[in-house]
Amino acid sequence: MYETSTTTVVGSLQSSNNPAFQDQTTVNEIIALTSPVTGGVPDTTVVIQQTTLSEGSSAPAPAAGTEITVLTVTETATSGDAVVIGPTATKNVPVVIIQGTAKVDVTLNDGATTGGPAVTATAAGADAPVIGAQRVVVAGAGESKFTIADAKNTKLSLGTGNSTVVTGHGVDTVVAGLGNSTITGGNSDYSVVKLAGTASNYTVAAGTSDVVVTDKITGVTTKIEKIQYVEVAGGDALVFAKTATEASIATLFEVALGRTADAAGLDYYYDLAKDGATLSQIANALVKSAEFGPRALLDDTAFINSLYQNTFGRNGDSGGMTYWLGAMHDHGISRADIIRSFAEIHTLNMQGTHSPGATALEATLVGNVTIVSGII
């Protein structure tokens, strides 16, 4: 075990050939976990423990105060057995870095039964809880199996080897896409998978209870079960809704706010729907949000046209504009209910059914929502 400075740690991470450390967000999360601020003064000393492991060896428990444990895994030339890394080897260490090409079987369990701490942030146009990472784990280059058995919010960056992951009870993020992987959500509904590139880089094949996302260029596959949100670049996402109602909730973000639903906000509104909130009530909540504020200043014509752009990627046609303006002016239909209607029409089109009165499906549907009835 030794101590070093935060500056040295940052330099070492950024000069590493591990792709995980090319993501500045991951580096920032590691520094946040290892350099806490007390009384406005950051702790710039990081305590690191290094251990080399092979098949059959047992990793020692980390020394008290260890902030980063570096586990270098090796294997014999004839053995294909995994290096087993049990909970003791990583207990209460906020950053776990695995190095080497050996196969590993890792179980993470600090005994935490609840995630947190919660950070108040504006998500999804409403004040929703956003939970930060309490543990960062970076895989090596070999084949890997990870089981997160507690509720500590974990960010896991997978390597280039094939991987199997079961997330835990907290808010977990699995960064995948370098090797083929199967990722299964654990006992919470809040896990997220993160992939590089944009949604257009991937094909999505939905089964009854899982989804296979394939990189069009590399052919790498990510099989996803019991997880509803895949974050990609540019604030975009692949959303896997269990029902048409969930699909419409996800689409409300595009319609009302002109953006993809964020994971925290989507979970927030999915939970409200499970507790009995209607689509109209959720649309009304978005309309009352601070994020919607500038759109509330649009005149009715500009407002309706913005819904066409946000939902179908086109300007409103004459007949459609007349219909919706008439609904507002002649029948007193609220903006929230018109937003709800656009979201429901989007979902109908996604399912291959055009809305009543329409003669054809929309050519373009904004967003990347897929209904997978058994996903959760």
Structure summary:
The protein has 376 residues and is α/β, with parallel strands linked by helices.
Question: How would you describe this protein?
Answer:
The chain is α/β, with parallel strands linked by helices and 376 residues long. The protein has 2 domains: 2-194, no CATH class; 244-371, no CATH class. The protein is built from 9 helices and 23 strands. It has helices at 6-15, 24-34, 244-257, 263-274, 279-287, 293-296, 300-312, 318-331, 335-350, and strands spanning 2-5, 37-38, 41-42, 45-53, 68-73, 83-85, 95-99, 104-108, 118-123, 126-131, 135-138, 144-148, 154-157, 163-166, 173-175, 181-184, 192-194, 202-206, 210-215, 221-225, 229-231, 237-241, 369-371. An 11-stranded mixed β-sheet has the order 1-4-5-7-11-13-15-17-21-22-23. α3 crosses α9.
SSE layout:
Blueprint: E1 2-5, H1 6-15, H2 24-34, E2 37-38, E3 41-42, E4 45-53, E5 68-73, E6 83-85, E7 95-99, E8 104-108, E9 118-123, E10 126-131, E11 135-138, E12 144-148, E13 154-157, E14 163-166, E15 173-175, E16 181-184, E17 192-194, E18 202-206, E19 210-215, E20 221-225, E21 229-231, E22 237-241, H3 244-257, H4 263-274, H5 279-287, H6 293-296, H7 300-312, H8 318-331, H9 335-350, E23 369-371
Parallel strand pairs: 4-5, 5-7, 6-8, 7-11, 8-12, 11-13, 12-14, 13-15, 14-16, 15-17, 16-20, 17-21, 22-23
Antiparallel strand pairs: 1-4, 2-3, 9-10, 18-19, 19-20, 21-22
Helix pairs in contact: 3-5, 3-7, 3-9, 5-9, 7-8, 7-9
